[in-house]
Structure formats: structure tokens, C-alpha cells
Write a structure and sequence with these properties.
Number of strands: 0
Shape: rod-shaped
Order of helices and strands: HHHH
Structural class: mainly alpha
Strand content: under 5%
Number of helices: 4
Radius of gyration: 22 Å
Helix content: over 70%
Distance between the termini: 17 Å
Largest sheet: none
């Protein structure tokens, strides 16, 4: 990339690796949480653990899974938005995005 493409604002914005990493790790917690949630119910049904303890465990794992889902979706969605904000700006009829004017 040359300095002229930076000055014209035609440089393609790159997706943040940090956001992508956080999003993928959060989705890992989502899978882990929901697997623990389902596993707790199977353990209750099989009689390995008591109902009260199983429901408590299922609740904790459910919250972990849901938090992972929301955080992962937010991080990966924000990464997609930052990648395509110029296309959105042209689509909505603005010549330049508000992000380019603020110095980002």
C-alpha cells in the first residue's frame, strides 16, 4: 500500500485479529457452556447427580454459554462491520464514511 492510496481513502480496512480471536474464543466458551448445560441434564436423568445440584450446574453452564454466544457474535459482527463500512457508506449515499473523517 502506498501513501497515495492512504491519502485517497481507498485502502481496504483490515479485520482486527484481536477482535476475531476474542470472538472465536468466546464461541468456544459458548460451545463449552451449552455442552455442560446439556450434560448436566443428562446426568440428572441418569441419576448421577441430585436434581438441585444438577439444575444449579446447568444454570451456571447456561449462563457461560449464553455469554459466549453474545460476546462472540458482537466481536465477529463488529469485525465484519469495520471491514465493510466503506461499502455501507457508498450504499447509503455518503461519499466518505464518518470513521474516515475522525482520523481512524
Amino acid at each position: 500500500m502506498t501513501h497515495s492510496t492512504q491519502a485517497l481513502g481507498t485502502a481496504t480496512p483490515q479485520r482486527s485479529r484481536k477482535l476475531k480471536t476474542i470472538g472465536l474464543v468466546a464461541f468456544g466458551f459458548c460451545v463449552l457452556g451449552y455442552a455442560g448445560f446439556v450434560g448436566a441434564f443428562f446426568a440428572i436423568k441418569a441419576g448421577y447427580i441430585s436434581t438441585a445440584f444438577g439444575l444449579t450446574l446447568a444454570g451456571i453452564f447456561g449462563v457461560i454459554g449464553e455469554a459466549g454466544l453474545w460476546i462472540g457474535a458482537a466481536c465477529l459482527g463488529l469485525g465484519l462491520y469495520t471491514r465493510r463500512r466503506e461499502k455501507l457508506a457508498r450504499w447509503f449515499g455518503r461519499a466518505k464514511s464518518a470513521f474516515n473523517r475522525s482520523g481512524r
